[in-house]
Amino acid sequence: MSSTLPKFCFVMHPLSLKDIERYEPGAKGKGEPIMRKILEWMPEWSVAHVTGVRTPDGRQTEGWFVGTPLLPEQMMSFPREEVYTRILRAIDIGVELGAQIAGLGAFTGVVGDGGVTVAQRSPIPVTTGNSLTIAAGIASLFRGAQEMGIDVASATAVIIGATGSIGSACAKLIAPKVRHLILVARNETRLRKFHEEVASTLPCSSSFTTDLAAAVRGAQLVLTATSSTKEIVEPADLQTGTVVCELSLPHDVSRRVALERPDVLVTEGGNMLLPGAPHFARVREPKGDFDLNLPPRTALACMSETMVLALERRFECYTLGRGIDLAKVVEMDEMATRCGFTLADMRAFDMAITPETIAATRAAAAERRSQVVA
Ligand SMILES: NC(=O)c1ccc[n+]([C@@H]2O[C@H](COP(=O)([O-])OP(=O)(O)OC[C@H]3O[C@@H](n4cnc5c(N)ncnc54)[C@H](OP(=O)(O)O)[C@@H]3O)[C@@H](O)[C@H]2O)c1
Questions:
Q1: How far is CA 177 from the centre of its chain?
Q2: Residue 54 CA, ligand 1 centroid: distance in Å
């Protein structure tokens, strides 16, 4: 690999004990309290070497996934300074390997002020990757709506996590397409303030509530982008034929939806197909591949944004904090397209969503509607 290639690192962490067991099968059966303690003591390390990402015009990048081994609950409950220190240690590992820009994965980009403090203290520019996540999430939501035959212009959409970095931008970008928008978060004061700020600028009617279940019951389009560490969208609350675009990591939608609601289409919104022949090689076991638990050539949108910035040699703090510049979402989407990144095929609950799955979901929704009418 040429030393002149633009280089990136991406800070990642396990989202669940399952993630840890997939990486280290020896962790199976150890028990959650012991695993949590081990994670607390484990240092940051270089997890995977990323090669083979190549744009249609032949540009390449090289990078590393660097692990900071804390679970989401630990990220949110540990002293903030300790978590920042750990994220910065992971970035330092990337810098030693030659990285010129760092991406913050999942809760490393959520904790505290959404990357702002980390960026101030980092020796290289930092991005949360949220601009491309927003663009991908919106495209996924509307792709799902089209597949389910939803008339978007007359639909109600709910944004769960509406005051967040991703949710607030999604609300503004979804509003021009729908009839009504419902904003949901837990902190009512912040939610009201955000609604007051944006309501008059939105081209559709809008409302806000902290009652997540009631909001979901009233919507045909649902987008989740929360920092919840638990499942919060329950099967009983979803309308027949609804599309749920899930951006949150870990996921917000109860796994029971897959079993109990065959009439609802859930889709992970933030997966991208990478250009070229990407390869994620485990660093400690050079012959092993690193398993992202995604199909081949697929990565998260936040990782993809970091790669795009490296490919475009835009070594700058591109996306940080809450209150994201919508022009950057558009620009990042354009840069990603130019670099050959495309929205990955639909997927949810660790499975591909095939045309057959969609046909079955539509049929189940039609059946359920006919039962209600009868
Ligand atoms: N798929 C991808 O590629 C990708 C990329 C980046 C980030 N993400 C994920 O996207 C999610 C959001 O990230 P972000 O940077 O936008 O986070 P953020 O700025 O911290 O926003 C989180 C939002 O969720 C709300 N929230 C938290 N818990 C909630 C609950 N139980 N019920 C309802 N609302 C809740 C928060 O408001 P309150 O505190 O008032 O409730 C806030 O509005 C995270 O899960 C992150 O890991 C995914």
A1: 22
A2: 31
* DSSP character at residue 137: H
Q: Do 302 and 220 belong to one domain?
A: no
Res 372 pLDDT > 80 = no
Residues 12-40 pLDDT 10s: 999 999 899 988 888 888 888 898 999 99
322 lines ligand 1 (CB under 6 A): yes
Q: Is 110 in the pocket of ligand 1 (CB under 6 A)?
A: yes
Q: What is the DSSP string of 283-332?
A: SSSTTSBP--SS-TTEEEHHHHHHHHHHHTT--S--S-SSS--HHHHHHH
Structural domain contains residue 2: no
What's the CATH number where 252 sits? Answer: 3.40.50.720
119 with 18, same domain: the answer is yes
Amino acid, single-letter form, for residue 86: R
Q: Are residues 77 and 172 in the same domain?
A: no
Q: Which domain holds residue 365?
A: 133-270+347-373
142 and 86 part of one domain? no
3-state SS record for 220-244: CEEEECCCCCCCCECHHHCCCCCEE
Is the overall model pTM greater than 0.85, yes or no?
yes
| Ligand 1 pocket check for 185: Cβ under 6 Å | yes
**What pLDDT, in 10s, does the model give residues 113-124?**
999 999 999 999
Which numbered atom of ligand 1 lies nearest the CA of 15?
Answer: 47
- State yes or no: cis peptide before 250, omega within 30 of 0: yes
Residue range 249-303, pLDDT digits in tens: 999 999 999 999 999 999 999 999 999 999 999 998 877 999 999 999 999 999 9
Which atom of ligand 1 is least distant from the CA of 228? 28
- Please compute the mean of the pLDDT values over residues 191-210 and round it to a whole number: 98
With a 6 A CB cut-off, is 160 part of the ligand 1 pocket?
yes
Query: Cβ(344) to ligand 1 under 6 A?
Result: no
